[in-house]
Write a structure and sequence with these properties.
The protein is an alpha/beta fold. The chain has helices at 15-25, 45-51, 69-79, 104-132, 153-173, and strands at residues 5-9, 32-38, 59-63, 86-89, 95-96, 135-140, 178-183, 197-198. It has a single domain (5-198), classed as Rossmann fold. Helix 5 links the parallel strand 6 and strand 7. Helix 1 (15-25) runs parallel beside helix 2, helix 3 runs parallel beside helix 4 (104-132) and helix 4 packs parallel to helix 5 (153-173). Belongs to the short-chain dehydrogenases/reductases (SDR) family.
């Protein structure tokens, strides 16, 4: 039998992560084994419903919070011993509003997930790829990582940082036969807007 391509995806409870995990796990030729990760495993029901139930040969749900090093360690330990071919860093969060209405806590949250969450995830799984001298890392960026967008200054800043991170990594990982891909999405029909962090509607500036 053909050996499966093992893929771990962060942020699979909705949106692009959910769609990608569904598509790969439902592949008719069963070419993929997907570790679909999310912060809240209770939200995995949506993914299972799309697949018509459990698919143990092609899908495994894993709890993974990219802001929690212990959660990342546990997920990396679960995958340990299996060849991870593709790592998809997809977890992300937005923040929309005039800059002066954005709290420091909300801004830090955006960078904690979008930038440092991506860094932590890569750090957790990169050593095994380096030892094997093979792998692919795919990172969900945004058009907002290429140009600033009105009322998205903090989100864009986090994605600009992700772009610099990945462009730098791509160079040093090439000798290890590890390929880094940035996916710079435009508008996609997901629940991203509903999940945006909001500025305080009572704020005098707003």
């Amino acid at each position: 039998p053909m050996e499966k391509t093992t893929v771990l995806i962060t942020g699979c409870s909705s949106g692009i992560g959910l769609g990608l995990a569904t598509r790969l796990a439902a592949d008719a030729a069963r070419r993929f084994k997907v570790f679909a990760t999310m912060r809240d495993l209770a939200k995995g029901e949506r993914l299972l419903e799309r697949l018509g139930g459990c698919c143990p040969e092609t899908l495994e749900l894993l709890q993974l919070d990219v802001t929690d090093p212990r959660s990342l360690d546990a997920a990396a330990h679960r995958v340990q011993g299996q060849r991870l071919d593709v790592l998809v860093c997809n977890a992300g969060v937005g923040l929309m509003g005039p800059l002066e209405t954005c709290s420091e806590q909300a801004m830090r949250r955006v960078f904690e997930v979008n930038l440092f969450g991506t860094i932590r995830t890569i750090q957790a799984f990169l050593p095994a790829m380096k030892r094997r001298r093979a792998g692919r890392i795919i990172v969900s960026s945004s058009i907002g990582g290429l140009q600033g967008l009105p009322f998205n200054s903090v989100y864009c800043a986090s994605k600009f940082a992700v772009e610099g991170l990945c462009e730098s990594l791509a160079i040093v990982l090439r000798p290890f036969n590890i390929h880094v891909t940035l996916v710079e999405c435009g508008p996609v029909n997901t629940s991203f807007l509903e999940n945006l962090q909001r500025t305080d509607p009572e704020g005098s500036e707003l």
